[in-house]
Write a structure and sequence with these properties.
The protein is an alpha+beta fold and 236 residues long. Helices cover 19% and strands 41% of the residues. It has seven helices and twelve strands.
Length: 236
């Protein structure tokens, strides 16, 4: 296909013709190729507010997730890969492997990356665009949802990736607030598949999803509660 500058030159007033008009129509009608969303992501975020600060490093490759979370000096690793949701204490090298709910597995294909979907989730729940803001000098669209549980706000980037830059949540019952700030986003990095696998030296307790539901709330399961609940339970 002719490039736009060459087409304009060939269709000069001295050379107007049906052929030039046809070429112009072809150029205008050419399909727009959508921007490809990267398959791998990394983000660093800090959660603060009325709870102890939490620092997280997040990686993904397709639907696979690896998260390293530090809470009160305790390093916790979360791995989500296929049918299992795994939580590991890096110090004791022990953890739990829970069978994921089938709905959560089916949603892998719908959600794209397994983290950083706060904006999409908020919109699906009825959140509405309020304004255009700037977070860290970067323009973003602010969405808000207010209901009986409280208020949530998410500011997402204006490009196709729709990256969350900041999230604020306030719970009506407790009056507590949490603020999540994404400090960095990187895409297209090389991540080997075994980065999302459990090291052979880690001792895991394995259980089905039904067993987890029976025991949850009655006893402590694993080194930490599921930090990415939608990846274990699904959103529906």
């Amino acid at each position: 296909m002719l490039e736009a500058p060459k087409l304009a030159k060939s269709c000069s007033p001295a050379a107007r013709s049906a052929r030039c008009a046809a070429l112009a129509l072809l150029l205008l009608a050419a399909p727009v190729v959508a921007q490809e969303i990267p398959d791998t992501w990394y983000a660093e975020r800090i959660i603060s507010g009325d709870t102890p600060p939490i620092v997280e490093h997040l990686w993904s490759k397709g639907p696979k997730l690896r998260a390293e979370t530090v809470v009160g000096g305790q390093p916790i690793v979360t791995l989500v890969n296929g049918e299992r949701y795994i939580t590991i204490d890096r110090i004791s090298r022990t953890g739990v492997s829970i069978e994921r709910r089938p709905d959560a597995i089916r949603e892998d294909a719908e959600r794209g990356r397994p983290f950083g979907n706060e904006g999409t989730i908020l919109q699906s729940a009825g959140g509405e665009k309020i304004s255009t803001e700037k977070v860290g000098g970067r323009p973003c669209e602010l969405y808000r949802l207010t209901n009986s549980e409280g208020r949530q706000e998410v500011c997402v980037s204006q490009d196709q990736a729709r990256l969350p830059l900041e999230r604020r949540a306030w719970w009506r019952k407790s009056g507590k607030e949490a603020v999540t700030q994404y400090l960095d986003w990187v895409s297209g990095i090389m991540l080997p598949d075994d980065f999302f696998e459990v090291d052979s030296s880690v001792k895991l307790e394995s259980m089905s999803y039904d067993e987890y539901l029976r025991r949850a709330g009655k006893e402590e399961i694993g080194p930490a509660p599921p930090l990415f609940r939608e990846l274990l339970h699904g959103t529906k």
